[in-house]
Design a protein that fits this description.
The structure is a single chain. The chain is α+β, with helices and mostly antiparallel strands and 380 residues long. It has 2 domains: 6-53 and 65-164 and 272-309, no CATH class; 168-270 and 326-361, Alpha-1-antitrypsin, domain 1, CATH 2.30.39.10. The chain is 18% helix and 34% strand. An 8-stranded mixed β-sheet has the order 2-3-19-18-11-10-9-12, with helices on one face. A 5-stranded antiparallel β-sheet has the order 5-6-1-16-14, sandwiched between helices. The longest helix is centred in the first third of the chain and has 17 residues, at 25-41.
Length: 380
């Protein structure tokens, strides 16, 4: 049976701060966001039960998904680097304390995956961005985002992009997984058999870092990018994202990693997010404490967009009934709220975190119940 290789994890996050020197910033904001940004970059889906977290200190609320990426912190740190470490906003913004009170930095991500720049439009900041993105083979800057800017306006731009393929594709399941009572698309291994060569290859990518019971699991899915770590943790949440992450890391440090065993199954929902948050709390606020580039500037608009996709497409795997004795079979079925963490292997902080507590960011079932089907477009 042919086993295909396929891009399985895609993440792209963008945080933009546009700093306006004019006295008519409010009028500019309304015009720019309504006529330009919304037309150029609005996500295709509206979210009512999913929130973009501004920091890892954000509380986890039952029934709500939380998505966080470090681009907002990186953009603000770039602003401080250019404007001065003592900068603040007037009137004061409580949100800013949580945005800045952390150790998030460029040390948490590799240089090839991130672009963070700040500068004046008239001095070529947009051209600099295009050059930096081109060097990393990333997307071009959408010129329509900046169509209404004048030469004296200042841009702070933070961009992160990651593509992490599995070396071996997992099986794709249609309606084999149910999350919060709703059938959803999923992928994984159905009843692992070491006689199946493709399943043996899949299984090498699964490390069970801690297993308390079928509702309390921490798993690493290994991608072909060794320095990046993908953790899935179905555990009881703590009060905040950060506290829950710490709980996961504590479990990992105390646990004993193991591999998937014969007849055990892994089933992970397919995730798809394209979401935008406009930080109105930061807009129309004057930057204070700066004597350089940002002296007297006002934040005209602060926006963060995040796209994340996790799946694995594959061909149907033949299965058979096996009776075996020995260790009890474990279920690795992610059908309850769980956490997704992406980080560099030795970094202090993650660069992407997602808490899933409803189906709004999961892909609905498209096939017949309990049937695995090949997904079109998989052939290479």
């Amino acid at each position: 049976m042919k086993t295909t290789k396929h891009k399985t994890i895609e993440i792209m996050a963008l945080a933009i701060g546009i700093l306006i020197r004019t006295a008519t910033a409010s009028a500019f904001i309304d015009s720019w966001t309504t006529n330009t940004f919304c037309a150029a970059s609005s996500p295709t889906k509206s979210y009512t039960r999913t929130t973009v977290a501004h920091s890892l200190q954000c509380a986890i609320v039952k029934g709500t998904n939380l998505v966080w990426c470090n681009t907002l912190q990186l953009a603000w740190r770039k602003l401080c680097l250019v404007a001065g470490d003592k900068v603040g906003l007037y009137p004061p913004v409580p949100l800013l304390t949580e945005i800045t009170n952390n150790t998030i930095s460029l040390n948490d991500i590799d240089n090839d995956s991130v672009v963070v720049e700040a500068g004046i439009v008239g001095s070529g900041i947009l051209e600099t961005l295009q050059k930096e993105l081109a060097l990393r083979s990333k997307e071009n800057v959408d010129a329509t985002w900046f169509a209404n800017l004048s030469p004296g306006d200042v841009v702070v731009y933070s961009y992160l992009s990651k593509c992490l393929p599995f070396r071996w594709s997992f099986s794709r399941f249609h309606a084999l997984s149910v999350f919060a009572g709703t059938p959803v698309e999923s992928f994984g291994i159905e009843e692992f058999l070491d006689e199946q060569r493709n399943e043996v290859q899949m299984a090498t990518q699964v490390s069970i870092l801690d297993y308390a019971d079928e509702s309390n699991i921490v798993v690493e899915l290994k991608t072909s990018c060794h320095e990046d770590v993908l953790i899935l943790a179905m555990i009881p949440p703590e009060k905040s994202l950060g506290n829950t992450i710490s709980s996961v890391y504590q479990r990992i440090s105390c646990g004993k990693a193991s591999t998937i065993r014969e007849t055990e199954s892994l089933c992970v929902p397919v995730i798809d997010i394209d979401i935008l948050r406009r930080y109105a709390e930061l807009e129309n606020k004057q930057i204070i404490g700066s004597t350089g580039l940002f002296a007297g500037a006002t934040i005209g608009i602060a926006v963060q967009t995040t796209r994340f996709h996790l799946d694995e497409r594959g061909t149907r795997v033949e299965s058979r009934t096996v009776f075996a004795s020995g260790l009890p079979s474990r279920k690795l079925i992610f059908d309850k709220p769980f956490l997704v963490i992406l980080s560099r292997r030795h970094a202090k902080n993650p660069y992407f975190v997602l808490w899933i507590d409803n189906t709004e960011v999961l892909v609905p079932c498209t096939g017949e119940s309990g049937v695995m089907k090949p997904v079109p477009g998989m052939e290479q």
